[in-house]
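*** Query protein ***
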Amino acid sequence: MPTDKATAHSVWRISLAREIAPLFTDKPNLEACFVFGSAALGISDQYSDLEIGFIWTQIPSATELEFFSCNAGASGWQIEPYGENRHAWLEQFYLLDMKIEAGHWAHSTMSDIVASVVEQHDVSQHGLLFENQTVVSHLQHGIALYGENVIQRWQGQIKPYPEQLAITMVQKHLKFRPFDGQRILTERLELPLLYENTCSFVRWILNMLFALNRIYHPGYKWTRYWTRMMTIKPSRLFERLESVFQSDAASGTEELGHLIEETLDLIEKHMPSVDLDRQRETLVQTYPRWSVPIRHT
């Protein structure tokens, strides 16, 4: 639920959601409706869409969803093409002068997603997105507009973040290569490859810090907000991440190295069951250098 510090954009969007919800909540098989995303977190800005989730006893077809939305006065309707196989849909449309992203899940699908994360400790990814954890994060922070009891039951299941999920997330991302490679790329000014690696390393740092802080992975948007929510983190984390990308290559690489080391130190302190020996050994390995031999004539 947004606090008193919620942005005006968030307050307006939630008010708008309360106007929109009744246009859909009379539909057959609809169990619950909730706001998620930046509005639910209280951090929406002028660029933010309004994200609304719908839970169905039996999920409608794409044709039915288009009919529901257009009948409510929506325009510019689109839907992701892969939803039918996943028993979930993501549609987009414009209503009351706002872009709406609507997620639709069958009740059984959402129950399976929650179980996969809470009971099976799911750390799988689709591209960069930890899909099931992200859905659980949306649900955890969601604001119920309809079917509050349905949402609250899942939120009760989610609330105790599983210790094994945290351990599994950390172990998955202990895959830093020798950092000497970054220094070599920096010296050569191989900037595309340097920053491609840097992005990967920063994501791994964040992934492990989410786990250390028992935060279901929310995705990589709103990094400033999520780093502020962390209590276990390197000092001045967000400002130093800015420095990694915005300072010169040599300074950014040096700062990144410090952040990796400090993150490993935090894991050692707060998650002592995780063995860091191999990762630390790999990180400090160096690549060979060859000097041009001096030939005497």
